């Protein structure tokens, strides 16, 4: 199972990734702060846990994408 972890790095922070036997994959993104809370879950990033739950419900019901 994949664990989703987030870290907020500030100016001058460094990151070093090492593994012994286990391969690792990660995504490093940069951008300006948006001034809003974020809640990540799988491919979803919303502002609240309730919005994540609603997105999952919509996905299961086939109503996630409406044209």
What does this structure look like?
Strands 1-2 form a two-stranded antiparallel ribbon. It is built from 1 helix and 2 strands. It has one helix at residues 49-61; strands at residues 39-41, 44-46. The model has no long low-confidence stretch (mean pLDDT 85). With 67 residues, the protein is of the alpha+beta class.
Structure at a glance:
The protein is of the alpha+beta class and 67 residues long. It is built from 1 helix and 2 strands, in the order ββα.
Strand order of the largest sheet: 1-2
State the end-to-end CA separation: 33 Å
Strand content: 5-15%
Which structural class fits the helix and strand makeup? alpha+beta
- N to C succession of SSEs: EEH
Shape by Cα distribution: flat
Which stretches are poorly predicted, pLDDT < 50 over at least 5 residues? none
Number of helices: 1
Mean pLDDT: 85
How helix-rich are the residues, as a percent range? 10-25%
Largest sheet: 2 strands, antiparallel
Q: What's the Cα radius of gyration?
A: 16 Å
Number of strands: 2
SSE diagram, text form:
Elements: E1 39-41, E2 44-46, H1 49-61
Antiparallel strand pairs: 1-2
Task: Summarize this structure as a short list of keywords or feature phrases.
2 strands; alpha+beta; two-stranded antiparallel ribbon; 67 residues
């Amino acid at each position: 199972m994949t664990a989703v972890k987030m870290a907020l790095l500030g100016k001058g922070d460094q990151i070093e990734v090492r593994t012994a036997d286990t391969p690792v994959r990660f995504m490093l993104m940069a951008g300006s702060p948006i001034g809003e809370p974020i809640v990540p879950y799988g491919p979803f990033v919303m502002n609240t846990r309730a919005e994540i739950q609603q997105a999952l419900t919509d996905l299961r019901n086939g109503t996630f994408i409406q044209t």
